Amino acid sequence: MGTRGVKAALGKAALPADDVDDPRVLLWRFETLEGIPVGFGGLEVCGSDALLRSLITLPPLRQVGMGAAMVAMLEIEARALKCHAIYLLTGSDTNFFARLGYAACAHGDVPAKVRASRQFTAHRPSTASAMVKHIG
């Protein structure tokens, strides 16, 4: 997948985009059956865990369940990649992720490999909440 569209969408959402070319960052572009772009989402695999990152639902399709569907697909991908848990950082969507089964956790409880990711080391705002969902 080309990264230009992803970088533009991330920039508009004020999310980090400088490492989307990193081969450890797996990104997906989601579309409707008619080929209409829905959004983007990514995983960064860190050993047996994954970091969910850069989830964006494009404005015309928000509030209709597309974000939840994208997270469900990313969880399937994480299971296929043999991950046991998915971690994430969020500044404002804790209720959304809680509805999908993610639980708040302390930053110190996040495994060291995930904490070493660029998302945690370079982009983590001090107000971001860490969350986890065990998937296997």
Explain what you see.
A hairpin with a 2-residue loop joins β2 and β3. The chain has a six-stranded mixed sheet, sandwiched between helices. The protein is of the alpha+beta class and 136 residues long. Helix content is 28%, strand content 30%. The longest helix has 15 residues. The protein is globular, with a radius of gyration of 14 Å.
Offer a concise description of the structure:
The protein is of the alpha+beta class and 136 residues long.
Biggest β-sheet description? 6 strands, mixed
Average pLDDT metric? 83
Low-confidence stretches: none
Helix proportion range = 25-40%
Secondary-structure topology with pairs:
Blueprint: H1 4-12, E1 25-31, E2 37-46, E3 49-57, H2 66-80, E4 85-90, H3 94-99, E5 103-105, H4 112-115, H5 118-121, E6 129-134
Output the keywords.
136 residues; 6-stranded mixed sheet; 6 strands; 28% helix; globular
